[in-house]
Specification:
Blueprint lengths: L13 H13 L5 H14 L4 H6 L8
Length: about 60
C-alpha cells in the first residue's frame, strides 16, 4: 500500500457502486477503494478533462 491514506465516507448509488466493483474485478484491484483512487489519480494527472468532468450536467437517475 503506497503512501498514507485517510478514510473518507461517500454515498454512492447502486449503479455507481456496481461500476466501481466491476472495475475492481475487471482489473484485479484489491478493493473498491483502490478503484476510486485510480480514478482520482487520473483526474489529478489530467487537468485538461476537469471542465468536461465537473461542468457537464449528467443525471443518470433523473428521468
Amino acid at each position: 500500500m503506497a503512501g498514507d491514506k485517510q478514510t473518507f465516507e461517500i454515498d454512492l448509488n447502486p449503479d455507481q457502486m456496481a461500476f466501481v466493483t466491476a472495475m475492481k474485478d475487471k482489473y484485479n484491484l484489491p478493493d473498491e477503494g483502490k478503484a476510486l483512487r485510480v480514478i482520482m489519480d487520473y483526474l489529478i494527472s489530467n487537468a485538461d478533462v476537469h471542465e468536461t468532468v465537473f461542468t457537464q450536467v449528467r443525471c443518470l437517475r433523473c428521468g
